[in-house]
Design goal:
There is one protein chain. The longest helix has 28 residues. This protein has a seven-stranded parallel sheet with strand order 3-2-1-4-5-6-7, sandwiched between helices. Strands 10-9-8-11-12-13 form a six-stranded parallel sheet, sandwiched between helices. It folds into two domains: 217 residues, Rossmann fold (3-Layer(aba) Sandwich); 201 residues, Glycogen Phosphorylase B (Rossmann fold, 3-Layer(aba) Sandwich). The protein contains 15 helices and 13 strands. By secondary structure, it is α/β, with parallel strands linked by helices.
């Protein structure tokens, strides 16, 4: 096959085999992530940059149009109705986040306009056959989809995470192609898809590496890699793992704090006390999403857990590869605690063979994508959390029970459960781009 395919917003190296596989079948990749282009070049795959198609006139026009849009928005948001809407539950806009919100909106609008112009140039100047995206959630991704759709170019969305069951939160119907992790996600995706034939079961390509034995060290080897003592239980907490709206909404920040307090209280009362590790969701910094915390912030975070009785020994703020960082952390843990019932990290924990405990927050807008039948334990308060963690640490038969249930559920959560999702996805890209 000849022709270009745009791989948009692929920033992590777990996706390199996908792009390399497509290139080996004759695809000429275009990418908007410079770091990934460099990694591809190192393996002998040349990819054009998306921004190569931008002109100075495009950028100037985007800035001017964005200022006009934000000017009109500023006038609107001063109205009493707008203020009341932001203050209504479950919104409750953080006052300190207002400036961040305005800056983010300006950036979003400018990027949307620029992306639309660049995408038009890509279509005009290449033989673009398809667009592949990690998700169609951001404004830029939606703009890419709209421009491609008008030109009759197929768009393939690789699922980014488990969609919510709540009909009020499910994104609007889609008319592009959707690569689902598994059969369970496919059922939810059917609520969004205009054409059932556009939903494809591929599995998650970024999880393929988790099936490799080299990325599945035993618990002692994983602890050694992290510098942790072998003889003390280690619990991993995916702290502040939220939908990402902590930046602006007090209700979300409060939910995160409730989970933190529950974990600190439960872990602090376990005897003997285990060690606690935390891997925050990258993007939860209030000052700038994705910004790494300062040393003062990390110290304050540790001090807070210590004051609440928990021995926080390890904080991992890695944003790169699941295989390199997250897998070792999970394999080192006796149990992994996740405060978000719809997080796909739950599947990652089950796939890596570790017990997973989910905090059941009744005030969360998301219903659980999982159930106890999947080998997932649930806790709704500190006492329940402490009880289930103690049982995991002291009762090998219970751990085996959870593991067996998870193994039975995984083929439905990650199609094939075989580490071959990338191959299936490459075949889908080639078929649709032909």
């Amino acid at each position: 096959m000849k022709g270009e395919v745009l791989f948009f917003d692929f920033g992590f190296e777990e996706y390199l085999p996908l792009i390399e596989g497509a290139a080996s079948r004759g695809v000429r990749p275009i990418m908007n992530q410079a770091g990934m282009r460099s990694r591809l070049a190192a393996s002998g795959v040349e990819a054009r940059g998306f921004l190569e198609f931008a002109t100075a006139a495009d950028q100037a026009a985007a800035r001017d149009q964005a200022r006009d849009v934000i000017g009109r928005f500023s006038s609107t948001i001063k109205s009493l109705e707008a203020v009341q809407a932001f203050d209504a539950a479950p919104g409750n806009l953080l006052i300190s986040g207002g400036a961040d919100l305005a800056r983010s909106l300006l950036t979003i609008v400018e990027n949307q306009i620029l992306v639309a112009n660049i995408m038009s140039h890509v279509i005009d100047q290449t033989d673009l056959r398809a667009v592949v995206m990690r998700s169609c959630l951001s404004s830029g991704q939606r703009m890419i989809q709209q421009v491609a759709d008008r030109a009759g170019i197929p768009v393939i969305e690789i699922s980014h995470g488990n969609p919510p069951w709540d009909s009020d939160l499910v994104p609007p119907p889609i008319d592009w192609h959707f690569a689902a992790f598994g059969a369970r996600e496919r059922e939810v995706a059917r609520e969004r898809a205009g054409d059932p034939d556009h939903i494809h079961l591929t599995g998650a390509p970024h999880w393929d590496g988790l099936y490799s034995p080299i990325n599945r060290p035993d618990r002692d080897a994983a602890k050694d890699a992290l510098g942790l003592p072998r003889d003390i239980p280690f619990l991993l907490y995916a702290g502040s793992y939220s939908p990402g709206s902590t930046l602006f909404f007090a209700s979300e920040a409060q939910r995160v704090m409730r989970a933190n307090e529950m974990v600190a209280s439960a872990v602090g009362k376990l005897i003997p006390q285990p060690l606690l590790g935390v891997r925050p969701h990258p993007g939860e910094s209030r000052q700038k999403p994705g910004r790494r915390p300062t040393q003062d912030e990390l110290t304050a975070y540790r001090d807070w857990f210590t004051a609440h009785g928990a021995n926080l020994i390890h904080v991992d703020y890695s944003e790169t590869s699941i295989v390199r960082e997250k897998a070792v952390l999970i394999r080192a843990a006796d149990a992994v605690i996740i405060p978000e019932a719809s997080s796909t990290m739950i599947t990652e924990v089950l796939l890596l063979g570790r017990p997973c405990v989910v905090i059941a927050d009744e005030e969360s807008p998301f219903r659980s994508f999982y159930s106890p039948d999947d080998g997932v334990a649930y806790a709704s308060n500190a006492h329940e959390l402490g009880t289930v963690l103690d049982r995991i640490i002291t009762d090998p038969a219970y751990v085996t029970e959870l593991h067996d249930a998870a193994e039975a559920a995984l083929p439905e959560l990650n199609h094939g459960h075989d580490g071959q999702a990338t191959t299936r996805l490459v075949n889908l890209v080639i078929d649709l781009a032909a």
